[in-house]
């Protein structure tokens, strides 16, 4: 089982990587469309499809985590009362 701190570190790293990727995409999108070859555009389309699939999977995992956190908080509140 992964150490809880390792899990938190991985979430923080994911946020950093996604932030950098977003910034890079925003800065270079127009230049790519001006200078990219047809082959490179097709490569980008395939990469985008893969990224969207992973993003959807991450969203499902985050939804599950949010649910479990809420459930744990609810149980903790009932135990205190």
- Mean pLDDT over the full residue set: 94
Main sheet summary: none
List unreliable stretches of 5+ residues.
Answer: none
Indicate the overall shape. Answer: elongated
Strand % is: under 5%
Count of separate DSSP helical elements:
2
**What is the gyration radius calculated from CA atoms?**
19 Å
Compute the separation of the termini in Å.
Answer: 32 Å
* Structural class estimated from helices and strands: mainly alpha
Give a verbal description of the structure.
The protein is mostly helical and 81 residues long. The chain contains 2 helices and no strands. The protein has helices at 4-35, 38-80. The longest helix is centred in the last third of the chain and has 43 residues, at 38-80. The radius of gyration is 19 Å and the shape is elongated.
